[in-house]
C-alpha cells in the first residue's frame, strides 16, 4: 500500500524546535500575504458568517494568520481561539498576535484536531484551514469539530487538492509526473477535500456547500513559484524522476521565468455546513 505524505513538512509539527517552527511560520506568513490568499480568506470567512461578538475556533492555527483575521472580525466582544499541536508555532503565533495589537482577543491552546480540548457546544463557528490533508486519519476530526459547535453553529474546512497544481512549463509529461509525485509525497491525503461534503453529511451537518478557490501567483519569489522547485526535489527523492530530469525541468522553469511571468498555483476547496439547531 502506498504511504502518502512521507515528505510532508506539516505531518508532525508538534515536535518542531524553535528554529524549525520559525521557518515554517515564515512560509505560512508569506503565503498568507499573497493577494489571492487574502481574497480567498476574506471570502470563506464571510461565507462562514464570522461576525462581531462570536467565539470562533481555528484548528491547526500554525502561525496564526487566519486566527488574526478571525480576531479582526469578532471584535472586542468576541474571541478567536487558535489550536495547534506545536508549542513552538504557538509561541510565534502569540508574538504575531501581540505585534498586530490583537493579543487581548486571541486565545491559543496546544492540542490535536482529533481530540479537541474543549467542551461540547463551545463555539459559534469552527474553521480548519489547510490542515486535515496533512493529518493521518484526518477525516476522523470532522465529528470532533462538530461536537464543539453550538446548535446552529457553522463548520468550515478549507483545504488543498494537491493533484490540482499548476505550473507554467513547456514539458507537459514531466510536469505531470512531478505534480503527481509531489501530491502523493507532501500530503497524507491530498484528495480529502473532495470527500469533505460527504463527511459533513455523515457527521449530521446540513446546508452543506462547497466552493473552489485557486490562488495563483506570477512572482518568481512567491510561495507557489517556490513550490514548483520544491515539487521537483520531492519527486526526485520519491524516485519518480531522475536527477537529470529534475535538473532539466528546473532549468526549463527558470528559462520560462526569464521570458516573463509564469503561473503557479493550486486548487483549494472550501466546504461549509451548519449544525442543526
Keywords:
Rossmann fold; alpha/beta; 9 helices; 23% strand; single chain; 277 residues
Describe the structure.
The protein has 277 residues and is an alpha/beta fold. The protein has a domain at 18-161 and 187-216 and 265-274: Vaccinia Virus protein VP39 (Rossmann fold), CATH 3.40.50.150. It has helices at residues 18-33, 35-47, 65-74, 87-99, 141-147, 172-186, 192-202, 223-237, 243-259; strands spanning 55-59, 79-84, 106-110, 123-129, 149-167, 206-213, 216-217, 264-274. Strands 1, 2, 3, 4, 5, 6, 7 and 8 form an eight-stranded mixed β-sheet that branches. Helix 1 (18-33) packs across helix 4 (87-99), helix 6 (172-186) packs across helix 8 (223-237) and helix 8 (223-237) packs antiparallel against helix 9. The radius of gyration is 19 Å and the shape is globular. The protein starts with 17 loop residues before the first helix and ends with a strand. The model has no long low-confidence stretch (mean pLDDT 95).
Amino acid at each position: 500500500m502506498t504511504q502518502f505524505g512521507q515528505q510532508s513538512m506539516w505531518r508532525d509539527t508538534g515536535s518542531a524546535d524553535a528554529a524549525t517552527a520559525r521557518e515554517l511560520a515564515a512560509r505560512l506568513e508569506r503565503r498568507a500575504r499573497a493577494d489571492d490568499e487574502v481574497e480567498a480568506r476574506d471570502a470563506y470567512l464571510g461565507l462562514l458568517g464570522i461576525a462581531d461578538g462570536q467565539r470562533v475556533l481555528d484548528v491547526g492555527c500554525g502561525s496564526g494568520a487566519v486566527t488574526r483575521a478571525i480576531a479582526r472580525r469578532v471584535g472586542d466582544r468576541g474571541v478567536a481561539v487558535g489550536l495547534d499541536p506545536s508549542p513552538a508555532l504557538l509561541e510565534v503565533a502569540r508574538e504575531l498576535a501581540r505585534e498586530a495589537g490583537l493579543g487581548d482577543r486571541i486565545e491559543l491552546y496546544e492540542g490535536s484536531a482529533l481530540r479537541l480540548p474543549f467542551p461540547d457546544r463551545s463555539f459559534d463557528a469552527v474553521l480548519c484551514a489547510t490542515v486535515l490533508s496533512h493529518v493521518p486519519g484526518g477525516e476522523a476530526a470532522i465529528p470532533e469539530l462538530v461536537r464543539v459547535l453550538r446548535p446552529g453553529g457553522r463548520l468550515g474546512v478549507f483545504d488543498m487538492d494537491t493533484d490540482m497544481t499548476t505550473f507554467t512549463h513547456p514539458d507537459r509529461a514531466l510536469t505531470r509526473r512531478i505534480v503527481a509525485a509531489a501530491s502523493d509525497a507532501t500530503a497524507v491525503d491530498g484528495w480529502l477535500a473532495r470527500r469533505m461534503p460527504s463527511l459533513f453529511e455523515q457527521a449530521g451537518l446540513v446546508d452543506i456547500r462547497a466552493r473552489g478557490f485557486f490562488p495563483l501567483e506570477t512572482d518568481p519569489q512567491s510561495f507557489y513559484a517556490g513550490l514548483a522547485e520544491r515539487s521537483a526535489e520531492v519527486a526526485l527523492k520519491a524516485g519518480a524522476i531522475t536527477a537529470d530530469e529534475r535538473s532539466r525541468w528546473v532549468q526549463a522553469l527558470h528559462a520560462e521565468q526569464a521570458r516573463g511571468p509564469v503561473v503557479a498555483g493550486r486548487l483549494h476547496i472550501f466546504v461549509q455546513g451548519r449544525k442543526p439547531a
